[in-house]
Amino acid sequence: MIMGSNVSLADLSQDVGSVIVSLGWASPTGEGDADVSVLLLDANGKVRSDNDFYFYNHPVAADGSVQLLGKTPTADGSEDRISFDLTAVPSGFDRIVVAASRYGAARFGELEDVRITLADAAGESLLRFAVDDAGSVTAVIFGELYRRGEGWKFRAVGQGYETGLAGLATDFGVDIEDDAAATEAEAALDGADADEPVDAAAPAAAEEPAGQSPLEAIPAPRRPEGEADGPRKPAARPRTAKKKVTLPKTVKKTLAENDSWRQARLFPVSVLKSDRDREMRATSVLLSVMAQVPEFSRRLTAGFGAPAGRMETFTEVSLPHGDSPRRPDGVIRVERAGKLWTALVETKTNGNALKADQVQAYMDIAARRGYEAVITLTNDVALEGSPLVDVKIDKRRKHKVALWHLSWAEVTYQAQMLIRHEEVGNAAHAWLLRELLHYLQHENSGCHGFQNMGPAWVPVRNGIDDETLCQGDARALEVVENWERLIRQVCLRLGGELGQKVLPVQRAKRGTDPKERRNRLADQLCLNGRLQAELRIDGTPGVLTVSADLRTGRLRTGIDIPAPEQGYPLSWAKRLVRRLAEAPADLHVETLVDSEAGGPRGTLERLRPEPADLLPKDSAKITGFRLSLLKGMGSGRGNAESGFIRSVDDAVDRFYTTVVVHLDNPTTRRTSSKERAAAG
């Protein structure tokens, strides 16, 4: 689409009762980001109240019409997805504005491939609009959905705001108070620095009409990595929230007589002996929890086009298919406004792979019966452009069926985020999620995520050792694909533990086909024998790098941190060494300079008594510091103690817990609202 054009959704698909809108961009540095927001507008083009404004601290509408799903990895980084149930949008709203904003001096012109896409409930992509030449704006309206008669249309807008989110919100009737009150409220929303002035384009608040409640604050976009927080003023009008339930910080003292007593579990795993037992138990456990914990099930199904409604789940359902019936592992059915959304579920545990003919049969059954989706659930991780199974779609059929995939690692991640970090609004739901987590993480469940680098791993390692691996070898491509799966799973596992977004960084040119990118990486593997990846972790000062050198059998984890903007180089070096007081002695520290000669380097053990050794002798300008750890690489292709997968997990864990956490200076680290409340 081009700017200003519009299209009726009904002309693009018959399945647009719910749609998925995705906002994406690429960053040359791998660190640029923005926050999405949604405004529901009445016939006057204004919000009716602050509840009509959705952003990262208010992501879900009570009626299920809007749900911000957060970021999901893509071939060139990540994108933000928003689920709209258009059948649930109240009749008083005529327009839905979809926008995004950046923080402080960051501009959209610094990003590449700024775009919005829209897909129907079956996951079929319907339209794409690229926002070109964004320039110096800090907020952009990407597009809007608006009513026309009984249907909905989409308009490509692309309007930018140099005044940021505050200016955009003001245009749609969001009241912004004076500087002091706005600063106070921003602090309450965990977004802004109390010492910074409110955007100059935001007008002072006028007299409020009687009975009208202004929005208490415009949420400031979340700070980029390393941005400083100044002192905050206490909020005069504290926000209220429903009581939440979360896991206790410390484990209660057990009443067991000794360690041999085992607590009774809702989902026992001791009797699981065969793969069939594991598949049946895992399916039943997951689907039963989904049916009872709506906030969890919505996280798993909203991205698949499922509406927000009453959910029931079933196992071992018999469905006719040719001469003999088929029995999918499970069925998910959601009812909303008298309409049914149905998905068939095929589950695999341990290292078992999906069978193409089995999935094809379920796709055919779903198409004949008018079901909306088939969901596969395995330990494998699906990659863009590289499907786990190839199925044929009969394009002559009017009814479309979407094929979606979930990894057990993704299920575990969503449960962790809810129960450990984002809290659950019901004690029984919290207990169910805790039992689910215990089951998924138990060694007998078979739900442990990606665990095997594949049959090509050993031949490729041997080929690199004896220099017989040639470019174009299909086995090298298989290893590259499995490396990408492993890194995506590392991101999910680490993000679930930390409660922060952890995403793989894909540095590729705009529009690069995923298969072409992987072929190029496979050729590089053949030439230099290295697998490389980058992870972006919210709240850290740089991108965490992981490199596996198959020639030397060593893993390197590292991070580049920029030099401070103020102060003296010797002060920088001393401060860095002090922060790393508890880091491993074998940590490598290198000074980054703007000359080809390179800066000094050494181990932390040698630098601790003499931080001045980090200063370049030729007075070259210091641009930053590189921290890295080396570790032996596992040789096996699996997840055993001596396996490659386990060694990568351990290397990332060690580097984050012993190095990266010490870089979070309390004076510069962005603290969460819960941490500030706990600190009094």
Task: Chart the SSEs and their pairings.
Elements (H helix, E strand, L loop, with lengths): L5 E3 H4 L5 E9 L8 E7 L11 E2 L11 E9 L2 E9 L9 E7 L10 E8 L5 E6 L8 E10 L2 E11 L2 H8 L7 H10 L86 H18 L1 H8 L8 E6 L14 E7 L2 E9 L8 H14 L3 E6 L23 E6 H15 L4 H14 L16 H9 L8 H25 L3 E3 L9 H15 L1 E8 L5 E7 L4 E9 L6 H11 L8 E6 L7 E3 H4 L14 E11 L11 H15 L14 H6 L2
Parallel strand pairs: 14-15, 15-16
Antiparallel strand pairs: 1-11, 2-6, 2-8, 3-4, 3-7, 5-6, 7-10, 8-9, 10-11, 12-13, 13-14, 17-18, 18-19, 19-20, 20-23, 21-22, 21-23
Helix pairs in contact: 4-5, 4-8, 5-7, 7-8, 7-10, 10-11
Give the strand tally: 23
Cα end-to-end separation: 51 Å
Radius of gyration: 26 Å
Sheet-strand content, in percent, reads: 15-25%
- Shape, per Cα inertia axes: globular
Number of helices: 15
* Strand line-up in the sheet with most strands: 17-18-19-20-23-21-22
Query: Helical residue percent?
Result: 25-40%
